[in-house]
Amino acid sequence: MSVSVRIPTILRTYTDGASEVNGEGGTLREVLQKLDADFPGIGARILDETGKIRRFVNVYVGEEDVRFADGLDTVTPEGASISVIPAVAGG
User: Fold this and answer.
1) Burial class (CB within 10 angstroms; exposed 0-12, middle 13-18, buried 19+) of 83
2) Each residue's pLDDT tens digit in the chain (91 positions)?
3) Which residues pair with 6 in a beta bridge?
4) Which of 81, 91, 89, 87 is nearest to 4 (CA)?
5) pTM here?
6) Is 81 exposed, middle or buried (0-12, 13-18, 19+ CB in 10 A)?
7) d(CA 74, CA 76)
């Protein structure tokens, strides 16, 4: 299934500057695997060494935070928009 993935500025070095890329997969896990295959290294910036979403990275499928859905097993329907949003600290 084809989806769009919004890439935050800090990760655009992996996508040649593209702010949005096409992805494929029926679940978020599949989409991220394909994303890392297409843009090597980006997966390690989203997932930790155990394969879980990094603590300071938020991922949304549509309007839904996947941490409150099925995590990496969240279904990604055809045409879905996935947003990768790193946490921003400030003070």
Assistant:
1) middle
2) 799 999 999 999 999 999 999 999 999 999 999 999 999 999 999 999 999 999 999 999 999 999 999 999 999 999 999 999 998 776 5
3) 20, 83
4) 81
5) 0.93
6) middle
7) 6
